Amino acid sequence: MNAVTPPGGEQSLGPTARRMILGSQLRRMREDAGITRQEAGYSIRGSESKISRLELGRVGFKERDVADLLTMYGMTDPGERQQFLDMVKESNEPGWWRRYGDLMPSWFNDLVGLEEAAARIQVWEPLYVTGLLQTEDYARAIMSHGRKDMVNEQIDRRVALRMRRQKMLSRPDAPRLWLVLDESVLHRPIGDREVLKAQIDHLLEMIQQPNISVQILPFDRSGYSADSAFSLLRFAEEELPNIAYTEYLTGAHYIDKRDEIERYSRALDMLAVDAETPDRSRQMLMKRRAEI
């Protein structure tokens, strides 16, 4: 087996994606060698669950652990081993979002890294404009629960983090963002009248970019295909599985099982069919903006 080399645009891969690629390569090597997770865990003074987390790219790697696993899996070529160990170092490099580590729950870290690496991000949002397309004032209103007296330095930094996440949409190799938005979002009074109007203006501006599409799901077609928000992230690198992301009050789920991904993908297809076309959605945005 050849050591992993990230396909084209190596510099665009962040640490989260590198961990996932490295983990998937180690899983394949283990399976090819006929070694169980329990046996692999024992060899690095760990457990079966630790091997599972490593292979899913959910935790950082230690060079010593990877070196021991490579030996156990039969990789002895010095050059190939060094490629793996070099990638361990790269996967452990901090992403730009680490400066906001005190604001981000641990379960959110991976999402930011995965967004940076994704080729396509598909989002269904029934309640708010998705964070990747929010204005500062709209985001601040959500984070402060609509109470201006609650705005403080921490909330301002959380807004800054959200704005920084959005910069990837303007990269030369920007991911394709496709958003299906429930019509109710255009009527929900987040912030005040001017905040909502500015948010709709921002959506109208952003959909002029060739990599961003927005479809509005009308009131009379809401609630049939999916009742809660989720994102589906797709990657150009074949080593990376498609991932569905859903949040709940105290955490998030990252889903990569093929049958479950297929259900999320079908739900998005149904939402896209039920929603208005991008051009008709743009007209709905303009009409709603004029009404505010």
From TrEMBL:
Domain of life: Bacteria
Protein's name according to its UniProt entry: DUF5753 domain-containing protein
UniProt GO MF annotations: DNA binding
Xref: InterPro entries: Cro/C1-type_HTH (IPR001387), DUF5753 (IPR043917), Lambda_DNA-bd_dom_sf (IPR010982)
Residue ranges of domain DUF5753 in the record: 108-286
